[in-house]
Design goal:
Layout lengths: L17 H16 L4 E2 L5 E3 H7 L5 H6 L2 E3 L5 E4 L4 H10 L10 E10 L11 E10 L4 H17 L5 E7 L6 H13 L5 H9 L1 H4 L5 H6 L12 H16 L5 E2 L11 E9 L7 E7 L3 H4 L7 E7 H10 L12 E5 L2 H16 L4 E3 L6 H10 L4 E5 L1 H5 L2 E6 L5 E5 L3 H9 L1
Parallel strand pairs: 1-5, 7-8, 12-13, 12-14
Antiparallel strand pairs: 2-4, 3-4, 5-6, 6-11, 7-9, 9-10, 10-11, 14-15, 15-16
Helix pairs in contact: 1-5, 1-12, 5-10
Bound molecules: adenosine-5'-triphosphate and magnesium ion (MG).
Length: 420
């Protein structure tokens, strides 16, 4: 161990576990790539105002969790706490919405930073894979995204997750609900901070996890009863499309989500094996966000799935991903001359697309074969001076243990045909 440790609330991904994270990212991305979503990458930091305006001044993310800094040049930046505001900013900046092909469908994968109280499933650095469909109001898009996330989780083998669904209404009907909810909440016995929240963002109070608060919320007005006809019809269509796709969901009228930009459809994927950090992913429609950050009206919908919590969900369900070994051929040279020859063979194998590795340093046969075993290679190639003098190598099948001499000058052909 060195003098240093990973900073509080962070952890490193190291082999062999790191392969799981790659596989999870790939599994979430696969259905998106297959459905017209193009890859987008944005910087790890943005101007603070993008998030304070985009995510919302009253959210936990902006008030408590953002890592902010002032550069030597005087710019106020924040490490990105989430992906949507950045992706929309980048799409607008590149004029993707003007290319005449709406919606703009994008997916991303990367690191996010929040100054939180670290605990299992809650870190200060974590990773997400996300998707956004920008510029079109169409319930089929909301349904598509939920279906694709469901498909990704099922492909990973996950079964103990549930999809919670709600509609937050739009700029017509939400203000009426907000007023009614505020009137109700003001009559409750709540602490000072929560009382303040009633005035800034009353919907967030519904999301309070404390039992003593939840008890008082029985009988609170429900958004469902305030939805305008357009929002109701929109929501019914999303639900019908999910039902037709055989994607099970639960209506959850208390689901509000922690970001200010959501309108209409909101949803969360929760996993029942994760304890209190149960949300593995979430998202929704954000029809007003573009205008909030100075862009044109662009109704959009998206989600982000947490990679860290998805890996924990796999563990909770006892799922081991089938990750194929990366090395196909492991070369074991016996002596200096053999090392030179096998190094050249390995280089040629790699150039022909065969995953190959070599025993480095000056290990004896026993230690080198141990390394070959550990690599989980299908074949080991062993070469000593005597074999080489006859133009031969020993090919060992690591599954059956059988060994046979093969010709050095056709080793690449022999191995490519054996491996196909
Ligand atoms: P929570 O309610 O658990 O704080 P959130 O609503 O803040 O979650 P989102 O902003 O919707 O989460 O992010 C989407 C997903 O990213 C979450 O469902 C979760 O899987 C993951 N995520 C969010 N914050 C963290 C974190 N601090 N550590 C690990 N994963 C996280
Ligand atoms: Mg959070």
């Amino acid at each position: 161990m060195s003098t240093f440790k990973a900073p509080k609330g962070t952890y490193d991904l190291t082999p062999p576990d790191s392969a799981k994270y790659l596989a999870v990212r790939e599994a979430i991305a696969a259905p998106l790539k297959n459905s017209g979503y193009g890859y987008i990458e944005t910087p790890g930091f943005e101007n603070v105002e993008l998030f304070s305006r985009g995510v919302g001044e009253s959210t936990d993310i902006v008030t408590k969790e953002m890592y902010t800094l002032t550069t030597k040049g005087g710019d106020h930046l924040a490490l990105r706490p989430e992906g949507t505001a950045s992706v929309l900013r980048a799409a607008l900046e590149a004029n993707l919405h003007k290319a005449g092909n709406l919606p703009v469908k994008l997916w991303y994968s990367g690191s996010y930073y929040r100054y939180e109280r670290p605990q299992k499933g809650r870190y200060r650095h974590f990773s997400q894979v996300g998707a956004e469909a920008i510029g079109t109001e169409d319930p089929a898009l909301d349904a598509e995204l939920i279906i694709l996330a469901d498909q990704a989780y099922r492909a990973l083998g996950l079964r103990q997750f549930r999809i919670l669904l709600n509609s937050l209404g739009d700029k017509e009907c939400r203000p009426l609900y907000r007023d009614a909810l505020q009137a109700f909440l003001r009559g409750l016995d709540l602490d000072e901070e929560t009382a303040r929240r009633i005035e800034i963002n009353p919907l967030r109070v519904l999301d309070d996890k404390r039992a003593e608060v939840q008890k008082q919320l029985v009988g609170a007005p429900l958004l469902r009863d305030y939805l305008c006809d357009a929002c109701k019809a929109y929501h019914e269509e999303v639900r019908a499309l999910l039902t037709t796709a055989a994607v099970a969901y639960e209506d959850d009228e208390k689901l509000v989500r922690g970001l200010d930009y959501y309108t209409r459809t909101t949803f969360e994927f929760v996993h029942d094996g994760l304890g209190s950090q149960s949300a593995v992913g979430g998202g929704g429609r954000y029809d007003g966000l573009s205008e909030m950050i100075g862009g044109p009206a662009l109704p959009s919908v998206g989600w982000a799935l947490g990679v860290d919590r998805t890996v924990l969900a796999l563990e909770a369900e006892g799922i081991t991903l089938d990750i194929p070994s990366t090395t196909a051929v492991f070369a074991v040279p016996l002596g200096e001359e053999a090392k030179r020859v096998l190094f050249a063979v390995v280089t040629r194998l790699r150039r022909s697309g065969v995953a190959a590795d070599l025993s480095y340093g000056s290990k004896g046969l026993k230690a080198a074969m141990k390394a070959a075993n550990r690599s989980q290679a299908r074949f080991a190639l062993v070469a000593g001076e005597r074999d080489l003098a006859e133009g031969l190598l020993q090919l060992k099948d690591m599954e059956s243990g059988e060994q046979e001499p093969i010709a050095l000058d056709s080793v690449v052909e022999t191995l490519t045909s054996r491996l196909s």
